[in-house]
Amino acid sequence: MTIIGWLQISLLFLAVLVVIKPLGLYMAGVFAGERTLLSPLLAPIERGFYRLAGVDRTREQGWLGYTLAMLALSLAGFILLYGILRLQAYLPLNPQGFANVSADLAFNTAVSFVTNTNWQNYAGETTMSHFSQMAGLTVQNFLSAATGMAMAVALTRAFARSQVSVIGNFWVDFTRATLYVLLPISLLMAVVFVAMGLPQTLDASATATTLEGAQQTIALGPVASQEAIKQLGTNGGGFFNANAAHPFENPTAFSNYLNIFAMLSISSALVYTFGQMVGSRRQGWTLLATMAILLIAGVGLVYWAETQGNPILGALGLDPAQGNMEGKEVRFGQAMTALYAAVTTGLSDGGVNGMHGSLTGLGGLVPMFLIQLGEVLPGGVGSGLYGMIVFAILSVFVAGLMVGRTPEFLGKKIEGREMKFVMLAVLILPLAILGFTAASAMLPFAVASVGTGGPHGLSEILYAFTSAAGNNGSAFGGLSGNTPWFNTTLGIAMLLGRFAYVVPVMAIAGSLAGKVKLPTSGGTFPTDTPLFVGLLIGIILILGGLQFFPALALGPIVEHFAMLAGQTF
């Protein structure tokens, strides 16, 4: 590790810190229906959408109606994207002449983008037409991100209101998230990306002559527009197979910085929005502090692991003090690769600027464990916020048990009904991850897709289902996932990780909205203090450790000790 490396990392986090408050206040105004800077331009368009769709923006929904609207939109998005992929060969803007996508891969991909996972069992530049990339994948990048934001805002209102049966209108929240937040920032960022050299064209490719005189065909397409929402919406699906390690997606050190900044900005600012809407900015900063401590610790561990000497390299006559550069871009180096790896998994982004499968044992363990913690550091846009609130509710319940009081969070009593929904939410990830991993590790036809033996092979399977259920989308890369088994099971894991998690969360929102908002008293356990930050961090780590440590011990931890012993596999 170097001072320059830590300076690069620190400046990035400082830049994110600067935008949290203004962006968070802006989004609070947007979701409250207040007039904003963009209202003169966008308000007439917003009202036009409501008239066309027959939506009454003044009519709010209960938690069940809100949730059913979200599920209906997601189902419609899945059907539309699946149809586009299955009929790709007959649709326009297919200059490469790509064939229709197979049924199982189309299912996996449609589920992946609708759930904000963006797991890719294909190489984009050799599989997807421009029409599929734009009208299919990019559109779902916007819709899935806006859906997560709407869910988080609905849960926020449940804490802000008292004795009501409604938590907002899904169609209004969804429209405002897309129109006022995602579209304007994505448009601006796409223009910046084009200026940096990212392609934005409907041409299929360009032909170049190499130094040896050979002809090389270089894939092109509408890259910049997809790259912008890929990062801002914490989607992560790359236009190219190499994702942000490809020079057309991430050409310079500054574009790499902008990629990471974009990933963190909206998700982090939404936590401030939460504090603003519930009337306690300190609570927002408390949750942000928890996220920041865990994320920075993750960055530090990956950076440390990748800069340590590898005894196996020393045995080969190489200098182990150089650390591990396998799978990394020299133009980014170990510091910015470690930062990208931790941020993309602390969020639910899944984009990569290096190959996670080439990280050391501990270097690969950290990104995997950050996903297993629930994608809350700060998580996907919206989904990370409501995931952290679930942990906060669990923490105040544990604190209440310790002092013998009925727990409260932001003036709402946490009782048996809420805790049942909390446990449904937190248990779905280990069920999907460990269940499918165990089955895949036992089935011969599934093991045949694993490219590496030993503990790293198990890590590839474990990481795949961790990424799918966590709605992350990154991969170790050694697993050949484009098979009927993995396309189907990973798709099911994505569905469980998104919808089997958020439905109990929305039920919590409905239950809390109907409760009286109590004033703070002398016996109220404060949830905006360093003590609560420590408790919350402890609950997150203990829960993650109890659930996943045995599996991690068989994979990346064994791999780490094997490396120290000079053993290969």
Quick summary:
The strands form 2 sheets. Strands 1-2 form a two-stranded antiparallel ribbon. The protein contains 19 helices and 4 strands. With 569 residues, the protein is mainly alpha-helical.
Molecular structure report:
It is a single chain. By secondary structure, this protein is mostly helical. It folds into two domains: 3-204 and 217-280, no CATH class; 283-564, no CATH class. Helix content is 65%, strand content 2%. The strands form two sheets. It has a two-stranded antiparallel ribbon. Strands 3-4 form a two-stranded antiparallel ribbon. Strand 1 (205-209) and strand 2 (215-219) form a beta hairpin. Helix 6 packs parallel to helix 14.
Summary keywords:
mainly alpha; 65% helix; 19 helices; two-stranded antiparallel ribbon; 569 residues
How are the elements arranged and paired?
Layout: H1 3-31, H2 39-53, H3 63-86, H4 103-114, H5 124-127, H6 130-160, H7 170-196, E1 205-209, E2 215-219, H8 223-232, H9 253-277, H10 281-307, H11 311-315, H12 333-346, H13 361-372, H14 383-403, E3 408-409, E4 412-413, H15 416-442, H16 444-447, H17 454-469, H18 484-513, H19 530-564
Antiparallel strand pairs: 1-2, 3-4
